[in-house]
DNA sequence: TAGATTGTTAATCGATTAACAATC
DNA sequence: TAGATTGTTAATCGATTAACAATC
């Protein structure tokens, strides 16, 4: 029996699922076993009708008059997203940023595991960063293929970004998180997400400027 | 003479302006003096008609038959966003992550300046990180008010996040970039942006799972 | 003038939300 | 049964885009 899924699901829906999941994980952590769309709305700043509508794209997971079972909904959303099992990540760059990412506790808790840490500095290769031993960047392709790693995180100096990305693509990595401000290119079957803090600041700056203009006027 | 600006501008428009700005800065860096909406479309993956439509919310900046003057458009977008002058940022946390952010070269290049770095560890206070001297977190409010700092970046351990955010709010900071996985709360007149890499990975994971399901079937 | 490209309209497309019957 | 809340419809709202007259 195959799952019934509508042919096209709006991107906005997919982007909100992780938000719902975060809220649900928090609810479970706090000991709640059920949640209504109204409660989820409170926690996520998403309209309650929209939450129900979004979930309905994938099936009916709630009980009328009762709400949603937190555990069940977590499981269903994780299944939909494909995070019902752990995914391995290759992290490249063992400097300050790489070390910070390697010890970031947000990955493991939510289905991602940093499987290997690479650097091109012979002085760093072999040293430990948290639980990881720094490996030579030359081993990336072999290890990534061996372990079927499809996620990569780039935490190297800007001017090395494209080279690292190219190496990741060659290694079969499909989703890349780029922490450098460099614009990098990848083939069509890969995705890059640039974590550009300035872009976010610029966008909020617009609203801030207007609020201050109003207050000052 | 006041600027003519429509009463309401869609949020999507505001969110795309930084994208256009990045492309234009790159074009200027590469020596181009004019750009058509078709060229910008190529660089940004945004429909050319939409770029023209978006810009038209704020005025008419181009020349028919010619295109947009890169320098002029950069200046106009920076003026619209409020990034035509530099903004000071207070960074809290002088660990690996804080040190990496302090030396991130993407801020200065685009109108943001890390004005001060704070930590609560007496062993770190007074030491240097790049060009900055680590200051005591107790000095945040005084310095932020003195220098009219309205941007804050949180790079501390998760369990200290809310305390730091509270201190930032007290110090008059209005826009906060939270690098911890903790959910933090702020008053209505402040904005928090959580840089949650897992959220982005989860969302791309959905598409990746489907692509692989198709390929495997 | 001929060619190019903007600014803008009007049509399409898609997402959001209020409302409510179904039902736990 | 009465109360609550889902799942879903239908209406609204808003954003995207093709098309083209204006014009450099």
Brief descriptors of the model:
Arc Repressor Mutant, subunit A; 3-stranded antiparallel beta sheet; Rossmann fold; 217 residues; 2 domains; homodimer; disordered N terminus; alpha/beta; DNA-binding; 10 strands; 7-stranded mixed beta sheet; 8 helices
Folded structure, characterized:
The structure is a homodimer of 217-residue chains. Chain A has eight helices and ten strands. By secondary structure, chain A is an alpha/beta fold. The first copy, chain A, folds into two domains: 11-81, Arc Repressor Mutant, subunit A; 87-199, NAD(P)-binding Rossmann-like Domain (Rossmann fold). A seven-stranded mixed sheet of chain A has the order 6-7-5-4-8-9-10, with helices on both faces. The first copy, chain A, has a three-stranded antiparallel sheet with strand order 1-3-2. In chain A, β4, α5 and β5 (112-119) form a beta-alpha-beta unit. In chain A, α1 packs antiparallel against α4 and α2 (37-44) packs across α3. The longest helix of chain A is centred in the C-terminal third of the chain and has 20 residues, at 197-216. The radius of gyration of chain A is 21 Å and the shape is globular. The N and C termini of chain A lie far apart (64 Å). Chains A and B meet through α1, α5 and α8 of A and α1, α5 and α8 of B. Chain A binds a DNA duplex (24 and 24 nucleotides) through residues 10, 12-13, 36-38, 47-50, 52-53, 55-56, 60, 62-68.
